[in-house]
């Protein structure tokens, strides 16, 4: 429930500046960055993702530790399932 | 037993364990509450009880959103579903929580349009693409999740989406901690503070625990080493006769929290005068509702909701376990009628629930060694 997934920002959408494409272990999805101070996120930055939103910017080292923690808790697969499950920025809503 | 090789430095774990053994006075019994269900999960998964001295006892706190939701609220939420023009959406954890007439999943199997979503934005998207339907999001969660609901509502308003509604069950952690501190049958020495909730709230809201109740609080990460380090920090404070808020999870939690998230919450929500928590009863100013500006999106004003109060199934002792009075296996139903396949109580549903974690890692012996 309080799963927090570390991801690296690969792209900020030009048309929708509140959307950032992030990558987690090879999986790419868009997340909303409206909970971060405006203009503070750049491609290359690491963020912590929760229910479709980047909730904080973190250091790369913290991100790797967070990924390892998800593996240690056995929740890494759940995290990727959650990421794949975000459909709000996709063209078609999957049922 | 399985072994996990991803730990930070197992030798360091052994060192911290030795320091803990040194810091814990043999003449004293320590009762430390881990507030967050994520910590409860980690503690059982890694069998940390066996690393700690016997006189350092961990008490599981109320930080599991589906666990503290009373059954009446589940029934209220499910009363919204089942109408022809309604799509009810909820997080995966919520889908398996039993109401009086079954879980959301069971209701879905009986024909109600109930869909699991991973984000409130997905629920909003379903509303946008189904303009002929009323789409309701069953919102649960502490401060980690509440800002996401707030931002989704701000987006719904900005885009003029009027067929989207939120059934708001967001709760706030501090009043629950205060209720536990004020409860006469609850003697605690210190708190392991929640990790991800604190990325939003920051560390300041816990200062009253140190100042007014003279109990140490250490905000902790979720790895075994994090939790053990936090316990050591607590024992050292207790040994020195101090009570402070410390932040062990500095790599993730900023002291001041997330200001844009707090602003979004302030724009959308107001405090309810009181809210019922499973096991803890009614706690004043402990939950959020949509404020008057968002009444048009508030399921509680836009749908007829019965507002039922249901007592838990008598045999299930969720309340006692939630308060830390009973350990999971001391409940009469544990592992029998109530198991992860067929949960009777919500604590058996979520991986953050004490019963589900105990069942998986202690009862069936799946724990991994630290």
Q: Could you explain how this protein is built, in words?
A:
The complex is a heterodimer of chains A (95) and B (370). Chain A is of the alpha+beta class and 95 residues long. Chain A has one domain (5-85): SH3 type barrels (Roll), CATH 2.30.30. Helix content of chain A is 24%, strand content 33%. In chain A, strand 2 and strand 3 (27-32) form a beta hairpin. Chain A is globular and about 40 Å long. With 370 residues, chain B is an alpha/beta fold. Chain B has helices spanning 10-23, 37-45, 65-68, 71-80, 92-95, 104-109, 120-129, 146-158, 173-182, 196-201, 207-211, 224-239, 259-268, 299-302, 318-322, 354-363; strands at residues 2-3, 30-36, 56-63, 86-90, 114-116, 134-141, 164-170, 190-193, 217-219, 245-247, 269-271, 274-277, 281-284, 288-290, 368-369. In chain B, the strands form five sheets. Chain B has a five-stranded parallel beta sheet with strand order 3-2-8-9-10. Chain B is globular, with a radius of gyration of 21 Å. Mean pLDDT of chain B is 92; it is low at 1-6. Chains A and B meet through strand 5 and helix 1 of A and helix 2, helix 7, helix 8, helix 10 and helix 13 of B.
CATH topology of chain A: SH3 type barrels
CATH architecture of chain A: Roll
- CATH architectural grouping of the largest domain in chain B: 3-Layer(aba) Sandwich
Q: Report the average pLDDT across residues of chain B.
A: 92
Shape of chain B: globular
Measured as a percent range, the helix fraction of chain A is 10-25%
Output the strand order for the largest sheet of chain A. 3-2-1-4-5
Which radius of gyration of chain A do the C-alpha atoms yield? 13 Å
Ranges of chain A where pLDDT stays below 50 over 5 or more residues in a row are none
Distinct helical segment count of chain B = 16
Biggest sheet layout of chain B: 5 strands, parallel
Terminal CA distance of chain B reads 11 Å
Just give the CATH class of the largest domain in chain B.
Alpha Beta
Strand content of chain A: 25-35%
What is the β-strand count of chain A? 5
């Amino acid at each position: 429930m309080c799963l927090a997934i570390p991801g690296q920002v690969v792209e900020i959408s030009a048309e929708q500046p509140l959307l950032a494409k992030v990558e987690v272990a090879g999986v790419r999805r868009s997340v909303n960055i409206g909970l971060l101070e405006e203009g503070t996120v750049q491609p290359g930055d690491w963020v912590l993702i929760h229910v479709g939103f980047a909730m904080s910017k973190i250091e790369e080292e913290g991100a790797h530790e967070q990924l390892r923690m998800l593996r240690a808790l056995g929740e890494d697969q759940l995290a990727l399932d959650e990421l794949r499950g975000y459909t709000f920025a996709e063209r078609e809503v999957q049922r | 037993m399985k072994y996990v090789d991803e730990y930070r430095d197992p030798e360091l774990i052994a060192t911290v364990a030795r320091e803990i053994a040194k810091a814990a006075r043999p003449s004293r019994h320590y009762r430390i509450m881990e507030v967050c269900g994520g910590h409860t999960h980690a503690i059982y998964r890694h069998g940390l009880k066996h690393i700690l001295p016997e006189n350092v006892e961990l008490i599981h706190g109320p930080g599991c959103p589906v666990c503290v939701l009373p059954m009446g609220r589940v029934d209220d939420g499910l009363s919204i579903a089942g109408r022809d023009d309604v799509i009810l959406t909820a997080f995966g954890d919520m889908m398996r929580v039993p109401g009086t007439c079954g879980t959301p999943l069971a209701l879905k199997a009986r024909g109600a349009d109930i869909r699991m979503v991973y984000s409130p934005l997905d629920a909003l998207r379903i509303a946008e693409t189904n303009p002929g339907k009323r789409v309701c999001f069953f919102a649960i969660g502490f401060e980690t999740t509440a800002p996401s609901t707030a931002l989704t509502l701000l987006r719904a308003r900005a885009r003029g989406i009027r067929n989207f509604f939120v059934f708001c069950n967001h709760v706030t952690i501090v009043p629950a901690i205060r209720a536990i501190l004020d409860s006469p049958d609850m003697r605690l020495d210190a708190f392991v503070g929640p990790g991800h909730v604190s990325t939003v709230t920051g560390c300041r809201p816990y200062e009253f625990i140190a100042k007014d109740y003279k109990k140490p609080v250490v905000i902790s990460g979720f790895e075994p080493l994090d939790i053990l380090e936090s316990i050591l920090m607590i024992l050292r404070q207790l040994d020195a006769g101090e009570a402070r808020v410390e932040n062990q999870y500095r790599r993730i939690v900023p002291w001041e929290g997330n200001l844009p998230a707090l602003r979004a919450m302030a724009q959308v929500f107001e405090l309810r005068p009181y809210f019922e928590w499973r096991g803890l009863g009614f706690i004043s100013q402990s939950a959020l509702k949509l404020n008057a500006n968002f009444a048009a999106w508030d399921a509680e004003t836009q749908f007829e909701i019965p507002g039922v109060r249901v007592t838990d199934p008598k045999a299930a002792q969720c309340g006692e376990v939630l308060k830390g009075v009973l350990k999971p296996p001391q409940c009469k139903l544990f592992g029998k009628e109530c198991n992860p396949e067929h949960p009777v109580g919500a604590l058996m549903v979520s991986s953050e629930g004490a019963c589900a974690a105990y069942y998986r890692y202690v009862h069936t012996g799946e724990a991994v060694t630290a």
